[in-house]
């Protein structure tokens, strides 16, 4: 290392703004910017291009270069969790549609027995997706409904069970306890079944996303993240920080409010969009 | 948190009788990190830190070895001052009904907040009517209907594809039923969705709401300003309601919104029940942002 600073302060400051504004967090951003200061350039090399490549490599080094798919082993239970309004119910509908198109027999469980019209909302989605639904009366214990759903899966041979849960803030311990009970119930009624626990996160979420992912992971484990509303202007950089500190990968992304607006997460596309 | 970090930084300053520029830089760095960790807008953070630096070098703030508490107090006071006064009320018009329109991105809490605000106004002696203008989201009208029933507040719904017509008919209904205010719940939408933003513009020019409130999730990151600016320039917003403050998000978006868009935060959502609507207290928000 020559210790010679080769990149202009002005360029570094522009890059810092892009990184921080992506919600990647000040610590990862500062680290990347500090590294860049001492970049050696070949004569005539396009500096901006080279720097972008370096940053891309750094971020891909954190999130991985390849998509991590959902489990391919059936029957499969998918538990959809996350804070209020993040896009869980919509994602349940979109995922149900995807598996239905793949000719899988799908059951969705309306385990948000708390919020106004939550069951009615999922009913409309299950019709769009062309799948079956199990629901309980309002105020039913969601774990009890999970038990009934599990029984139905065994009886009728469903290949995919997608469980919609009520939105909950991670700092509410009684609600996190309820989630633990739901997970235990899955284990009881369908022992040994393949289980994906998907944390649905709004791409507009800032640094609090780290605490969200941490507490949901500590409570019941998280096998993947669905990053929703990436059709907005937020870049979802918080997912990079979460991957670094908790090891949880983004598996799917939400790109709109329609039933087809769900895609596999592509690290390359994500990083390129982040640096635009 | 900032308090501990500042203590570490200022401890190194003990025994020095004059602050160097480097000492001040150390303090400013900690404040910058705290702000960005709290989701305060990048440029708002930069301006705030630059302003403190000018004052520090101008000897107004860090005039001698300042203990961490004094710096903390200074920063907290500055943020409190920037957050403006507590203006937690709706300005009622002399021509009934007063029309209040809720707007914002998807999932921020508009429908729930519409009902919370209606309940709050009822307790203040008003007679609100809630109107379901979200004709897109599955079961959105049903959601508002259930919320209205739970607190005995009338809800106007219509099976129509034209929001402006529904809104106009609801005003007629309000007058016929002696309601002195109308709360319009609208569909969540992206600030970059031209068609949906036009729907709001047409609603505004068609029924002239007295108050347009932007409903913002308190855990919003760096895009808070871009979103608010767009809603403000296309529609004009009169105030902000910050939701889900019962979570542990630091809520830096509050400072960014107030300083850039310069509209007051009128209320905060602090839970899922309809009673969970509080006045906005700038000093409480300030200490929350600093962590
Ligand atoms: N633009 C956009 N909107 C989305 C996306 N995913 C969900 N939404 C919208 O976000 C809002 C909330 O979605 P829901 O599915 O009700 O979210 P939820 O997590 O189930 O909400 P709660 O059950 O109340 O916690 C709705 O208006 C959805 O249409 C997405 O990928 N893009
Ligand atoms: N914990 C908590 N949850 C809230 C608060 N405000 C709203 N919610 C929850 O956030 C979720 C979304 O609320 P909605 O009222 O459906 O949000 P919305 O903005 O109308 O959503 P769209 O119409 O889809 O854009 C629901 O689960 C609400 O119960 C709050 O202050 N605290
Ligand atoms: Mg839901
Ligand atoms: Mg709504």
Secondary structure topology:
The complex is a heterodimer of chains A (276) and B (291).
Chain A: H1 9-21, H2 26-36, H3 47-63, E1 76-81, H4 88-101, E2 106-111, H5 118-129, E3 132-134, H6 142-156, E4 160-165, H7 173-189, E5 194-202, H8 208-220, E6 224-228, H9 238-246, E7 250-254, E8 262-264, H10 267-274
Parallel strand pairs in A: 1-4, 1-5, 2-3, 2-4, 5-6, 6-7
Antiparallel strand pairs in A: 7-8
Chain B: H1 2-11, H2 21-37, H3 42-57, H4 68-82, E1 98-103, H5 110-123, E2 128-132, H6 140-150, E3 155-156, H7 163-176, E4 181-185, H8 194-207, E5 211-217, H9 224-234, E6 239-243, H10 253-261, E7 265-269, E8 277-279, H11 282-290
Helix pairs in contact in B: 1-2, 1-4, 2-3, 4-11, 7-8, 9-10
Describe what you observe in this structure:
The complex is a heterodimer of chains A (276) and B (291). By secondary structure, chain A is an alpha/beta fold. Chain A is elongated. Chain A has an 8-stranded mixed sheet with strand order 3-2-4-1-5-6-7-8, with helices on both faces. Chain A has 10 helices and 8 strands. Chain A has helices at 9-21, 26-36, 47-63, 88-101, 118-129, 142-156, 173-189, 208-220, 238-246, 267-274; strands at residues 76-81, 106-111, 132-134, 160-165, 194-202, 224-228, 250-254, 262-264. The two termini of chain A are 30 Å apart. Chain B is elongated and about 70 Å long. Chain B has helices at 2-11, 21-37, 42-57, 68-82, 110-123, 140-150, 163-176, 194-207, 224-234, 253-261, 282-290; strands at residues 98-103, 128-132, 155-156, 181-185, 211-217, 239-243, 265-269, 277-279. Chain B has 291 residues and is of the alpha/beta class. Helix content of chain B is 48%, strand content 13%. The chains are: A alpha/beta (276), B alpha/beta (291). Chain A binds chain B through residues 17, 20-23, 25-27, 83-87, 115-117, 120-121, 123-125, 169-172, 202, 204-209, 211, 229, 231-234, 238, 257, and chain B through 32-33, 36-39, 42-43, 105-109, 136-140, 142-143, 145-147, 150, 190-192, 217, 219-223, 226-227, 244, 246-250, 252-253, 272. One magnesium ion (MG) binds at residues 110-111, 134, 140, 188 of chain B.
């Amino acid at each position: 290392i020559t210790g010679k600073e080769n990149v202009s302060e002005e360029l570094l400051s522009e890059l810092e703004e892009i990184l921080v504004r992506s919600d990647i967090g000040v610590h990862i951003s500062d680290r990347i910017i500090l590294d860049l200061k001492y970049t050696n350039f070949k004569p005539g090399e396009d500096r901006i291009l080279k720097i972008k490549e370096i940053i891309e490599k750094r971020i891909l080094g954190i999130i991985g270069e390849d998509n991590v798919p959902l489990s391919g082993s059936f029957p499969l239970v998918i538990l959809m969790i996350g804070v209020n309004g993040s896009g869980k119910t919509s994602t349940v509908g979109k995922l149900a549609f995807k598996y239905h198109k793949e000719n899988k027999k799908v059951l969705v469980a309306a385990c948000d027995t708390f919020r106004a019209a939550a069951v009615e909302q999922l009913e409309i989605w299950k019709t769009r997706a062309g799948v079956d639904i199990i629901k309980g009366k309002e105020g039913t214990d969601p774990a009890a409904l999970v038990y009934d759903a599990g029984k139905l899966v065994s009886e009728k041979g469903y290949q995919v069970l997608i469980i919609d849960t009520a939105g909950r803030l991670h700092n509410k311990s009684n609600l996190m306890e309820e989630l633990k009970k739901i997970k235990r119930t899955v284990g009881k009624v369908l022992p040994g079944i393949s289980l994906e626990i998907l944390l649905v996160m709004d791409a507009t979420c800032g640094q609090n996303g780290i605490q969200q992912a941490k507490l949901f992971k500590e409570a019941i484990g998280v096998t993947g993240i669905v990053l929703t509303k990436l059709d907005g202007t937020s870049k979802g950089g918080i997912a990079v920080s979460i991957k670094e500190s908790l090891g949880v990968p983004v598996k799917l992304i939400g790109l709109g409010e329609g039933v087809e607006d769900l895609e596999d997460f592509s690290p390359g596309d994500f990083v390129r969009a982040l640096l635009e | 948190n900032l308090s501990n970090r500042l203590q570490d930084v200022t401890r190194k300053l003990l025994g020095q009788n004059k602050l160097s520029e480097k000492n001040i830089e150390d303090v400013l760095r900690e404040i910058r990190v705290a702000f960005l960790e709290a989701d305060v807008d990048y440029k708002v953070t930069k301006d705030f830190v630059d302003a403190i630096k000018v004052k520090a070098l101008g000897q107004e703030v860090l005039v001698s070895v300042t203990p961490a508490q004094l710096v903390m107090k200074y920063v907290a006071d500055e943020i409190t001052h920037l957050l403006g006064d507590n203006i937690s009320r709706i300005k009622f018009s002399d021509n009934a009904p007063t029309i209040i329109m809720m707007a914002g991105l998807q999932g921020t809490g508009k429908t729930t907040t519409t009902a919370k605000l209606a309940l709050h106004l009822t307790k203040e002696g008003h007679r609100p009517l809630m109107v379901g203008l979200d004709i897109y989201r599955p079961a959105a009208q049903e959601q508002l209907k259930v919320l209205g029933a739970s607190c005995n507040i009338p809800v106007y719904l219509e099976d129509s594809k034209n929001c402006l017509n529904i809104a106009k008919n609801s005003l007629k209904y309000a007058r016929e039923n002696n309601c002195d205010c109308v709360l319009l719940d609208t569909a969540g939408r992206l600030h970059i969705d031209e068609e949906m933003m036009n729907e709001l513009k047409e609603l505004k020019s068609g029924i002239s709401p007295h108050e347009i409130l932007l409903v913002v999730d308190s855990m919003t990151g760096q895009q808070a300003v871009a979103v608010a600016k767009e809603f403000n320039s296309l529609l004009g917003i009169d105030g902000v309601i910050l939701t889900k403050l019962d979570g542990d998000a630091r809520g830096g978006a509050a400072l960014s919104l107030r300083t850039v868009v310069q509209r007051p935060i009128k209320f905060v959502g602090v839970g899922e029940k309809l009673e969970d609507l509080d006045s906005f207290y700038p000093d409480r928000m300030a200490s929350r942002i600093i962590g």
